[in-house]
Design a protein that fits this description.
This protein is α+β, with helices and mostly antiparallel strands and 568 residues long. The protein contains 14 helices and 20 strands. Helix content is 42%, strand content 28%. The strands form three sheets. Strands 13, 14, 15, 16, 17, 18, 19 and 20 form an eight-stranded mixed beta sheet that branches. A hairpin with a 2-residue loop joins strand 10 and strand 11. Helix 1 crosses helix 7, helix 7 runs parallel beside helix 8 and helix 11 packs antiparallel against helix 12.
């Protein structure tokens, strides 16, 4: 019984260490990675011509919009060779334009020259304004093989320190982030400090446990029971007869140097109590065996109930039934309570994640047991593009928050209409929506579904415009383009950032159809243009008017367009 307890105790200890380290790494990545997605959105708008990188007024408005909706970003910048960088930073709950100090200009010019020849997004380290440290992420904007400039965003080191401290607190420890083995990048002691240096030497930090991190022992070298998985580092540190454990993971995605994200704990708080119980069980096993048998039935029932509840909840997660899962209750058993806390944390994270990934896509992957790396394939799909007419002019008279509220209201109308017909929403591109039918599940009637969605949008948009007019606001017109044809659908991107999306000439043709809506006179506030391929799939219950053939960019053959009006 002692040997079994020994094996179970160390297994639990190893799992606890692994769970703690993964939580630290995951929470840190979840904080930083969304910033990169905002940057990709800005770069896309520049490449698509929606945003002029040489127009400071446009850039300022776009930057303020992103900073308003993403309070954790410190600033946004634009770099162009031969020019002083421009941008907007957050200061005292305000957004201010960057005005580099004279003493910073030589350093800034070196960086401008460096970024002017960059070809790939990269993380860098920089103190742009004297007295304030931050990390910079730079994204070259390349179009038709030409570098238009470089966009960048900054993450304040004091703010990053607050996040690291909170992550450490969330797992019951003292969080830290090292840039290389001997430099402290983020720590609770840096939350309210303004320092010229980006990092603090490890031996100068006022955290005695952390300063002696690498002087500690690796527990795995002293006991074969402690097993450390690849990428995980554990250090046992002894200070004044007190014992501590530091748990870290290596992260190599945010600059040239390896980051070490971790936290340290008093040893008793991460397995010490379990080890103590192990010793007591060896000494008192013979005495308590009879009591143990009597208690086993009671404890078994007490333990089995939360375990059964956990099993049922996990089964519901397997079906992605996240909204109907009840959080696991607390338990006075430490291990079960830790399991409940970890499960509830995972449940909240999955619910948040569900908002960003199409649920039916994940369901299809689970039900069909598809291999992720082989998902890309050619399918017959129907694609929809939407756009708001004159949105740029409209947004100039609105604040950033008003723009965000308006777009959320706009996409709520469109999203409900397309999802009702089984569409997969691919992405939001500024004020535009892209959706498609026919994947991941096959939909032989995808053109009909797309047309019904477009007509539903038109109907609901008329209702929305009536409310605007009643409120004294002008009507807003939208354009919709529909096209059906072959396209490649599946995982597109690189391993660190993959999207389930579609590519091909069908997508480009659909976007051109939507743009042709500018040339169509229409008494309605919604213009729906469909291609000949879509029209051929519709029966006589749909009313369509042929508007002509158009030569569009990127197509040798003219595109025949029809205006979809109604369905009987």
């Amino acid at each position: 019984m002692f040997r079994a307890n020994q094996e179970n105790t160390f297994t639990l200890l190893n799992r606890s260490i692994s769970l703690l380290s993964r939580t630290l790494e995951t929470d840190l990545r979840n904080y930083i990675n969304p910033f990169k997605h905002h940057m990709e959105g800005l770069v896309w708008r520049v490449r698509d011509g929606q945003l002029d990188i040489t127009n400071k007024k446009q850039l300022h408005s776009a930057f303020v919009g992103v900073l308003t909706t993403t309070p954790n970003i410190h600033g946004l910048f634009s770099w162009r060779k031969g020019l002083v960088p421009s941008g907007v930073v957050r200061k005292d709950n305000r957004f201010v334009d960057i005005v580099p100090k004279d003493e910073d200009r030589p350093q800034i010019q070196v960086l401008v020259e460096k970024y002017a020849v960059a070809t790939e997004p990269s993380w860098d380290e920089l103190t742009l304004t004297s007295g304030q440290s931050f990390i910079l992420y730079n994204y070259p904007v390349i179009k038709d093989g030409k570098l238009l400039g470089v966009l960048g965003l900054s993450i304040s080191v004091p703010e990053l320190s607050k996040v690291v401290a909170l992550i450490g607190n969330s797992v019951g420890g003292n969080g830290f982030l090292l840039n290389g083995k001997n430099s402290v990048l983020a720590h609770g002691l840096r939350m309210d400090r303004e320092e010229n240096g980006l990092t603090i030497p490890l031996d100068e930090i006022e955290d005695q446990v952390l300063s002696e991190l690498w002087e500690g022992d690796d527990p795995a070298t002293k006991s074969h029971h402690v097993k450390v998985e690849p990428g995980l580092l554990v250090r046992h540190i002894e200070i004044n007869d007190r014992h501590y454990l530091a748990v870290m993971r290596e992260i190599n995605d945010y600059g040239k140097k390896t980051w070490y994200a971790g936290a340290w704990f008093p040893a008793d708080e991460i397995g010490g109590a379990s080890l103590h119980r192990l010793v007591l069980s060896a000494i008192g096993g013979a005495i308590i065996i009879i009591v143990g048998v009597l208690c086993a039935i009671f404890l078994g029932r007490l333990i089995s109930k939360p375990i059964a509840g956990s099993a049922n909840a996990q089964a519901q997660i397997g079906q992605l039934d996240l909204q109907h899962i009840e959080p696991l209750p607390d338990s006075f058993f430490k291990e079960l309570n830790e399991q409940a806390v970890a499960f509830n944390t995972m449940l909240e994270a999955l619910r948040a994640f569900e908002r960003y990934v199409p649920r039916k896509l994940v369901t299809a992957l689970m039900q069909k047991n598809l291999v992720v790396d082989t998902l890309s394939q050619e399918r017959e799909l129907t694609v929809m593009f939407t756009d708001i007419a004159g949105f740029t002019t409209l947004s100039e008279s609105m604040t950033a928050q008003e723009v965000a509220d308006f777009l959320n209201e706009h996409f709520a109308i469109l999203g409900a209409c397309v999802e009702e017909q089984g569409a997969t929403i691919d992405k939001y591109i500024g004020d535009a929506l892209m959706a498609f039918w026919g994947a991941p599940e096959i939909q032989s009637d995808s053109p009909v579904r797309a047309c019904l969605s477009a007509l539903a949008i038109a109907k609901n948009w008329d209702i929305y415009n009536k409310k605007r007019v009643d409120s004294g606001l002008p009507e807003i017109s939208i354009r919709i383009g529909l096209h059906t044809g072959p396209a490649v659908v599946g995982n597109i991107g690189f391993p660190g950032r993959i999207n389930y999306t579609i590519v091909g000439d069908t997508v480009n043709t659909c976007q051109r159809l939507e743009s042709l809506g500018r040339e169509i006179e229409n008494s309605s506030t919604t213009t729906i243009l469909i291609s000949q391929a879509v029209r051929d799939k519709l029966d006589d219950s749909f009313t369509c008017n042929k508007v002509g053939s158009y030569q569009v960019k990127g197509k040798n053959e003219p595109v025949v367009a029809y205006q979809l009006l109604s369905k009987k």
